[in-house]
Design a protein that fits this description.
This protein has a 15-stranded mixed beta sheet that branches. A 9-stranded antiparallel beta sheet has the order 3-7-6-5-4-1-2-8-9. Strand 15 and strand 16 form a beta hairpin. It contains 9 helices and 24 strands. This is Regulatory protein YycH domain-containing protein.
């Protein structure tokens, strides 16, 4: 009897093993990219590996521009930009050499030359951070920054690397491959480009749409990490932590650090007292801030390095959606930090992140062309010569009915006196100032 039972048990075990192998083969054989399957991720309460940003994502371009003989076409579609980024990564440039520092007029004329392709970054990026574009980066060269790469359709010309702030121009040895794959990013995707005009502002030359632009206002469900996540990231030792919260802020502090989170807006402020005398270099601050950003930021869309402020030693990053920066009154798209040798000492961070789009609430918005906005600004007493920069972006607006919903509304933004605001807010502020002066 025991022998019969043993045979049956063996048979059942073999059958289970066979079934397991069949199921494993079935799972492995189903293509992972099947388009008829849609998975909605659950609400996350901690940093997902998929949200950890890479250097290639953060220090990446955000505009691709084609300057033909007679027109300029600009794309900000994230898929096109990624293809352009991959092209330069797969076709690395050769030796980098400093060319010259140009006078403003000469520099502007150089940018406006025709028959070129331009890859534009949101801010001047240290060359070391985009070393993927080069066969090698000479010692000392990597700390220099650029925010434009210009490649001529004339194969005998080198590739030019430009920095708008210093007006420094570098040349890089051209790769051996053809630029045809890069050209196809325009010829095969013309619907994603807008015809643009050049505007020479105080800080930069921008290529902005020459006609009205139709964009979607989008609503999203909003999530944010629990306070325990930020405590774990920002405090090494929580045994001395005190809860000093009040009606406005959730506050945690110890003997040297303080963390504040605004209860209504979700904006986080962190400060750590530091008596260090030796400041990091600009490059070290940018590098170290990126490594901090990787572990604290759970934004699931694109983010870009936005700049380094030499005066206060702060590094800024900007959140993006659909190729456009997110801004607004509270600047919920901005991440700002300051680093020392011992680590992070100052942080401004919006804890709210968008998760699920509410597609049934999308609304098309028609925005006027840049020239019309410049006329409006001039009529309000803001001359063209006062405009430092200008561009399209999303304004983050919290929903009055639900704290879990945010609206991202396309707007024109203008930079005046070092500060970005919507064009409407800039005009209102000027008119209020004029009224107060009466």
């Amino acid at each position: 009897m025991k022998q019969v039972d043993s045979k049956w048990i063996s048979f059942i075990l073999y059958a289970l093993v066979a079934t397991s192998l069949v199921l494993t083969w079935r799972i492995m054989s189903v293509p992972s990219g099947a388009k008829n399957i849609q998975t909605i991720a659950p609400t996350q309460t901690s940093t997902s590996i998929s949200n950890v940003k890479s250097m290639e994502e953060i220090f990446s371009p955000h505009r691709l521009t084609f300057h033909t003989q007679s027109n300029t076409f600009v794309a900000s579609d994230e898929r096109i930009i990624k293809h352009a980024d991959s092209f330069f990564k797969d076709n690395p440039m050769g030796e980098i050499v400093f060319d010259s520092t140009y006078a403003k007029e000469t520099y502007d004329e150089f940018i406006l030359k025709r028959n070129r392709i331009e890859l534009r970054f949101p801010a001047a990026v240290p060359i070391e951070m985009i070393s993927r574009y080069f066969n090698s980066v000479p010692e000392g060269m990597g700390k220099n920054s650029i925010n434009r790469i210009l490649i001529s359709t004339a194969v005998e010309e080198p590739i030019y690397l430009l920095d708008d702030e210093s007006r420094n121009v570098y040349t890089a040895e051209r790769f051996e491959g053809s630029i045809e794959p890069l050209m196809r990013l325009y010829s095969a995707n013309k619907d994603y480009y807008v015809n643009a005009n050049a505007y020479s502002f105080k800080d930069t030359i921008k290529f902005l749409p020459q006609s009205d632009v139709t964009l979607n206002r989008v609503d999203y469900l909003v999530e944010k990490q629990p306070n325990s996540f930020f405590i774990g990231q920002l405090f090494e030792d929580t045994t001395e932590l005190r809860d000093d919260s009040n009606d406005v802020f959730t506050i945690y502090s110890d003997n040297i650090s303080e963390l504040r989170i605004h209860k209504e807006t979700g904006i986080l402020y962190y400060y750590r007292n530091s008596v260090e005398q030796d400041d990091l270099t600009a490059f070290q601050q940018i590098r170290d801030s990126f490594h901090t950003l990787k572990f604290i930021d759970t934004w699931t869309q694109a983010s870009h390095f936005e700049g380094y402020d030499k005066e206060n030693g702060q590094v800024t990053y900007r959140r993006y959606l659909n190729g456009m920066p997110i801004s607004g009154a509270l600047d919920r798209g901005l991440i700002r930090m300051e680093m020392k040798n011992s680590g992070l000492v100052d942080l401004y961070y919006p804890t709210e992140i968008i998760q699920t789009p509410l597609e049934d609430r999308e609304q098309q918005i028609v925005l006027p062309d840049a020239q019309e906005l410049i006329v409006q600004l001039n009529g309000a007493g803001i001359p063209y010569s006062a405009i430092e920069d200008m561009g399209l972006g999303y304004e983050w607006i919290s929903n009055d009915e639900s704290t879990r919903v945010a609206s991202l509304v396309p707007r024109w933004f203008v930079k005046l006196d070092g500060t970005w605001s919507t064009v409407d807010d800039a005009i209102d502020a000027r008119q209020r100032g004029d009224a107060d002066g009466l």
